[in-house]
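An instance follows:
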Amino acid sequence: MPNPENRQRIYPSKNGTLNAEDRQNLASLLIKAGYSVRIGKDKLKSTTVYFVEFWEE
Protein backbone atom coordinates (compact mmCIF):
# COMPACT_ATOMS: atom_id res chain seq x y z
CA MET A 1 0.00 0.00 0.00
CA PRO A 2 1.48 3.36 -0.95
CA ASN A 3 2.22 5.96 1.66
CA PRO A 4 -0.90 8.19 2.01
CA GLU A 5 1.40 11.23 2.01
CA ASN A 6 2.30 10.47 -1.63
CA ARG A 7 -1.32 10.54 -2.77
CA GLN A 8 -2.75 13.60 -4.46
CA ARG A 9 -6.40 14.53 -4.96
CA ILE A 10 -8.07 16.56 -7.68
CA TYR A 11 -11.27 18.29 -6.61
CA PRO A 12 -13.58 20.42 -8.75
CA SER A 13 -12.93 24.14 -8.52
CA LYS A 14 -15.33 26.20 -6.42
CA ASN A 15 -17.28 27.38 -9.48
CA GLY A 16 -16.88 24.21 -11.53
CA THR A 17 -17.92 20.61 -11.41
CA LEU A 18 -16.44 17.26 -12.33
CA ASN A 19 -19.28 15.05 -13.48
CA ALA A 20 -18.97 11.26 -13.60
CA GLU A 21 -17.80 11.27 -17.21
CA ASP A 22 -15.15 13.91 -16.47
CA ARG A 23 -13.86 11.89 -13.51
CA GLN A 24 -13.70 8.73 -15.64
CA ASN A 25 -11.82 10.52 -18.42
CA LEU A 26 -9.36 12.07 -15.97
CA ALA A 27 -8.78 8.70 -14.29
CA SER A 28 -8.23 7.07 -17.68
CA LEU A 29 -5.57 9.61 -18.63
CA LEU A 30 -3.79 9.22 -15.28
CA ILE A 31 -3.78 5.43 -15.66
CA LYS A 32 -2.31 5.75 -19.17
CA ALA A 33 0.40 7.98 -17.67
CA GLY A 34 1.33 5.19 -15.23
CA TYR A 35 -0.45 6.27 -12.04
CA SER A 36 -2.70 4.27 -9.77
CA VAL A 37 -6.06 5.97 -9.47
CA ARG A 38 -9.07 5.95 -7.19
CA ILE A 39 -12.32 7.88 -7.54
CA GLY A 40 -13.84 8.74 -4.18
CA LYS A 41 -16.11 11.11 -2.36
CA ASP A 42 -15.99 13.27 0.76
CA LYS A 43 -18.99 14.38 2.74
CA LEU A 44 -18.55 18.07 3.65
CA LYS A 45 -21.40 19.28 5.86
CA SER A 46 -24.47 18.43 3.78
CA THR A 47 -22.63 18.34 0.44
CA THR A 48 -20.97 15.36 -1.22
CA VAL A 49 -17.82 16.25 -3.16
CA TYR A 50 -16.28 13.75 -5.58
CA PHE A 51 -12.54 13.64 -6.26
CA VAL A 52 -9.92 11.75 -8.25
CA GLU A 53 -7.00 10.51 -6.16
CA PHE A 54 -3.77 9.32 -7.78
CA TRP A 55 -0.31 8.08 -6.78
CA GLU A 56 2.75 6.27 -8.10
CA GLU A 57 3.53 2.75 -6.95
